[in-house]
């Protein structure tokens, strides 16, 4: 990824994240989160994680944010009225930002600027030769089947947690429907 694209997507993500916190209107804040997700998706695509970048757009910027906006509209949230900022929380927040920035500069100044080594696709093909021949042939041809690898990892290594998350999402969806129904007495 060219450096100017990295900085563009990083700035889109950072400005979107700051706008989520800074804007008072809940709908504008939710749409700023969409901008932040788009920037994050661009960074994933720049790292050659195409599947994760596309899923970031489809799932988070699409489905999850539509759900957030639907809930905001359902709750009928109003814009918060302006009030004078208190000095102690403002100074505490700025102190945390300053401490984090100093720590980040200290860590980044000591870390070497090394280029990542290319993936050993032949070793990956040998690893998946018996477990999954389809993944093995794609790796041997020089392609990185990231969708297949994510599916392999999810369904073979984390099947029970995946099923538990599915049940929890179902229970939370039923809970939202029950809580959103109006009480008529």
TrEMBL record:
The enzyme's E.C. designation: 7.1.1.-
Alphabetized GO MF terms: NADH dehydrogenase (quinone) (non-electrogenic) activity
Pfam families for this protein: Oxidored_q3
Transmembrane feature ranges: 6-23, 30-51, 57-75, 87-108, 160-179
Catalytic activity: a quinone + NADH + 5 H(+)(in) = a quinol + NAD(+) + 4 H(+)(out)
Keywords: Cell membrane, Membrane, NAD, Oxidoreductase, Quinone, Transmembrane, Transmembrane helix
Bilayer topology annotation: Multi-pass membrane protein
InterPro entries listed in its UniProt record: NADH_UbQ/plastoQ_OxRdtase_su6, Nuo/plastoQ_OxRdtase_6_NuoJ
Subcellular location: Cell membrane
Signal sequence annotation: none
Keyword Transmembrane helix set for record: yes
Leading EC class: translocase
Physiological role: NDH-1 shuttles electrons from NADH, via FMN and iron-sulfur (Fe-S) centers, to quinones in the respiratory chain. Couples the redox reaction to proton translocation (for every two electrons transferred, four hydrogen ions are translocated across the cytoplasmic membrane), and thus conserves the redox energy in a proton gradient.
Family label: Belongs to the complex I subunit 6 family.
PANTHER family (alphabetical): NADH-UBIQUINONE OXIDOREDUCTASE CHAIN 6
Protein name: NADH-quinone oxidoreductase subunit J
Organism in which the protein naturally occurs: Luteolibacter flavescens
């Amino acid at each position: 990824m060219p450096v100017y694209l990295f900085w563009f997507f990083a700035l889109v993500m950072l400005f979107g994240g700051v706008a989520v916190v800074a804007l008072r209107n809940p709908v504008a804040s939710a749409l700023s989160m969409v901008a932040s997700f788009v920037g994050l998706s661009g960074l994933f695509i720049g790292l050659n994680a195409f599947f994760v970048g596309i899923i970031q757009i489809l799932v988070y910027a699409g489905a999850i944010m539509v759900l957030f906006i639907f809930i905001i509209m359902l709750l009928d949230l109003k814009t918060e009225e302006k009030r004078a900022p208190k000095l102690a929380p403002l100074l505490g927040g700025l102190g945390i930002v300053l401490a984090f920035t100093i720590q980040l500069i200290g860590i980044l100044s000591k870390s070497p600027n090394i280029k990542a080594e290319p993936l050993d696709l032949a070793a990956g093909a040998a690893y998946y030769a018996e477990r999954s021949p389809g993944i093995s042939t794609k790796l041997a041809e020089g392609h990185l089947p990231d969708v297949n690898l994510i599916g392999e990892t999810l369904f073979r290594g984390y099947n029970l947690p995946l099923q538990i998350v599915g049940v929890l999402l179902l229970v939370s969806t039923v809970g939202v429907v029950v809580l959103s129904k109006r009480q008529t007495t």
